[in-house]
């Protein structure tokens, strides 16, 4: 295939987002916010956030004879791990992470999914992987802690043997929820659980349910699949669209009937609120107005007098304002909740470098560690550290060796709501 045909095919698969590529004026403000643009290996402009957009502009403008299907091009694009910090820094608000997802999609359309590692394919269908791990728990947990198995897994999947991975639980949240008596709340709400709170840490789903019931809701848990963030990040947009269509089909009737949809995971909140629509298809916007993050809902109920905090002794905490929480502007909301609960907080905004599961791959582990080291300088180990992201918690605990809690756990503690067994 001649260079012009290669360029045309790539741009055709890249789609209409080329208009956003063209809007970049190359100011470089995105570099200041991008974690991978501020590491020791970012010595070339092509390894920065601005550089990645310029690469796409060069292909559009047919400058430099770049091959968008080369491994070198893909490696540079993959330095973006979709933290979304660059969007607020960009004067034009260009969604650079979305452009990188479309670039990966165009790359895979031509080269095929065989160019993805086994680890990428596992993560892109993490709901099935979690279900399998849950089915064989606790044996699966025992295996994942064996050094020889982790070394083999690193060889086979590129998932680094040092990376912190979550445990699995035999009893899932959904199986537990089906056995619970129907609550008699005077209002109803739909809970989108996502995979982590279902298979890896059901206590999150249980505590969310208890909090919702405490403030007067009857909780509804419809059939659902994982929200699908890794599939989007890796450019597997067709697979991500199938996940979105399934979840959309299950949730749309509730949204049409005036029900709100609450999420306890910032990744799920982001995708249901805007990610599905902006990255995959505008039609998914039909449910976005019905979606609310758990922190938003709890603050709302506190303001209405339905949530009271009975433990009054001040407690110093550090709140890690993670990347997706920043994208959702959850920081001020969570801070108000923590203030109401009597917490004396310090906010930490440095990225942990986990970036979902990006930091677990052996080719990214060293860079992820370097980014985490900047966060470590801010953490005080004698204070409770909080974060809303499940994967950020795994990253911080693995690299900084400090325990991390979710804000909802502390809020429940301060309201003296016990975790359900």
Describe the structure.
The chain is α/β, with parallel strands linked by helices and 421 residues long. It folds into three domains: 113 residues, Fumarate Reductase Iron-sulfur Protein, Chain B, domain 2, CATH 1.10.1060; 127 residues, Glutathione S-transferase Yfyf (Class Pi), Chain A, domain 2, CATH 1.20.1050; 106 residues, Rossmann fold (3-Layer(aba) Sandwich). Helix content is 52%, strand content 8%. It has 23 helices and eight strands. A four-stranded parallel sheet has the order 2-1-3-4, with helices on both faces. Helix 1 packs across helix 7 and helix 18 crosses helix 20. The radius of gyration is 22 Å and the shape is globular.
Q: Tell me which CATH architecture of the largest domain applies here.
A: Up-down Bundle
Number of H- or I-type helical stretches: 23
Percent of residues in beta strands: 5-15%
Tell me the number of structural domains: 3
- Beta-strand segment tally: 8
Query: Could you give the order of strands across the largest sheet?
Result: 2-1-3-4
Biggest pleated-sheet summary:
4 strands, parallel
Low-confidence stretches: none
Query: What portion of residues is helical?
Result: 40-55%
| Separation of the first and last Cα atoms | 61 Å
CATH class of the largest domain reads Mainly Alpha
Q: What Rg do the Cα atoms give?
A: 22 Å
